[in-house]
């Protein structure tokens, strides 16, 4: 079986290895069909780490995946060979205090696809996942759409965690796949105005196509001044989706008193970020971190199937499995208007 593995900084290699086997009664063997390249995958590719999570080479990343069921364990009842599935990359223990409290995404013993020291990723011809991580696909949902359901579920969870959306004025700083995954459900839920920023013009254009009220480039204009011209009272909630200090500063200035800042973006290093505490205190800003998604994977597939919005606009580039390194280099360099690069098997 072939797997594409990181072998060093900005290096990867196709490697042969034994085919995965069913070990537990609830295991499902999946033949991969599509994998999306995530920004976190690129962090590991470029720097070998995200915070305290450090790659031990060789290692396969990838967690936005979909495929076809090849074989199932004796206790599996939800899927059968030949079924098409989206893959929930999280595998919580189900018994710790976090799981019992309805927070499996912060499980004390969580293993997550493509996360160092937890589980190899899905950039392989086949992988094994527990039955609970296999989400059957409706006939009219493609493998690409199923792979995109993973980042979409993060955006949906962030929106759920934020504020009641109908009639709100929101900001989204960073219009990559996660920013767009916030925009789509926020628009569908009735946000009154959505202000989006990004440093790539094609992404701004795509955000407008997806329903943003306004889009701006932070290197060419005063984002705060431009938005507040249109919303003098400030925004109800801002979703920080790019992991940049400048965006955090802009978010605090954009928010109205009592507003809420949602932190989704991953900073490029493990260093601290900072806030101007005087503004935070005087405006009584609430800050909410977003850790992946919680209970939104199936909801994301359902909304895709219902055609509430079109996630296909995110996929801008496609590569065969053998060309995975080209996809990573493209995404890492933000070339050619890339938003989501998709790997096909």
Taking all residues together, what is the mean pLDDT? 97
How many discrete domains?
2
**Share in β-strands:** 25-35%
Shape: globular
SS-based class: alpha/beta
Helicity level: 25-40%
The SSE order reads EEEHEEEEEHEEEHEHEHEHEHEHEHEHE
Total helical elements: 10
CATH superfamily of the largest domain: Medium-chain alcohol dehydrogenases, catalytic domain
> Quick one: how many beta strands?
19
| The CATH topology of the largest domain | Quinone Oxidoreductase, Chain A, domain 1
What does this protein look like?
The two termini are 12 Å apart. By secondary structure, the chain is of the alpha/beta class. Helix 1 crosses helix 10 (324-333), helix 3 crosses helix 4 (177-188) and helix 6 packs parallel to helix 7. The protein is built from ten helices and 19 strands. It folds into two domains: 2-136 and 310-344, Alpha-Beta Complex (Quinone Oxidoreductase, Chain A, domain 1), CATH 3.90.180.10; 153-289, NAD(P)-binding Rossmann-like Domain (Rossmann fold). Strands 3, 6, 7, 10, 11, 18 and 19 form a seven-stranded mixed sheet that branches. It has a six-stranded parallel sheet with strand order 14-13-12-15-16-17, sandwiched between helices. The protein has a two-stranded antiparallel sheet with strand order 1-2. The model has no long low-confidence stretch (mean pLDDT 97).
Q: Characteristics of this structure?
A:
zinc ion binding; seven-stranded mixed beta sheet; metal-binding; alpha/beta; Quinone Oxidoreductase, Chain A, domain 1; 345 residues; six-stranded parallel beta sheet
């Amino acid at each position: 079986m072939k797997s594409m593995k990181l072998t060093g900084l900005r290096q990867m290699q196709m490697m042969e290895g034994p085919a995965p086997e069913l070990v537990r009664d609830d295991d499902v063997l999946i033949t991969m069909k599509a994998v999306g390249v995530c920004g976190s995958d690129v962090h590991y590719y470029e720097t070998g780490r995200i915070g305290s999570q450090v790659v031990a080479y060789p290692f396969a990343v990838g967690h936005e995946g979909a495929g076809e069921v090849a074989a199932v364990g004796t206790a599996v009842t939800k899927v059968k060979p030949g079924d098409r599935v989206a893959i929930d990359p999280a595998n919580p223990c189900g018994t710790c205090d976090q799981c019992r409290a309805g927070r499996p995404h912060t499980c004390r013993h969580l293993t997550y696809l493509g996360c160092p020291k937890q589980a190899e990723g899905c950039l392989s011809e086949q992988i094994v996942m527990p039955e609970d991580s296999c989400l059957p696909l409706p006939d009219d949902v493609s493998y690409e759409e199923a792979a995109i359901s993973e980042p979409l579920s993060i955006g949906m969870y962030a929106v759920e965690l934020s504020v009641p959306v109908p009639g709100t004025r929101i900001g989204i700083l960073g219009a990559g796949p996660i920013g767009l995954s916030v925009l789509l459900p926020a628009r569908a839920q009735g946000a009154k105005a959505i202000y989006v920023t990004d440093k790539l013009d094609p992404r701004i254009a795509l955000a407008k196509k997806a329903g943003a009220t306004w889009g701006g480039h932070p290197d060419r204009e005063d984002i705060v001044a431009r938005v507040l011209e249109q919303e003098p009272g400030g925004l109800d909630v801002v979703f920080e989706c790019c992991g940049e200090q400048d965006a955090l500063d802009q978010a605090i200035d954009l928010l109205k008193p009592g507003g809420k800042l949602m932190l989704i973006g991953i900073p490029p290093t493990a260093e601290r970020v900072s806030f101007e505490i005087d503004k935070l205190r005087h405006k009584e800003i609430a800050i909410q971190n977003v850790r992946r998604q919680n209970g939104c994977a199936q909801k994301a597939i359902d909304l895709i199937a219902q055609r509430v919005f079109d996630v296909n606009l995110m996929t801008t580039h496609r590569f065969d499995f053998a060309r995975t390194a080209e996809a990573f280099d493209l995404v890492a360099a933000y070339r050619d208007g890339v938003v989501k690069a998709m790997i096909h098997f």
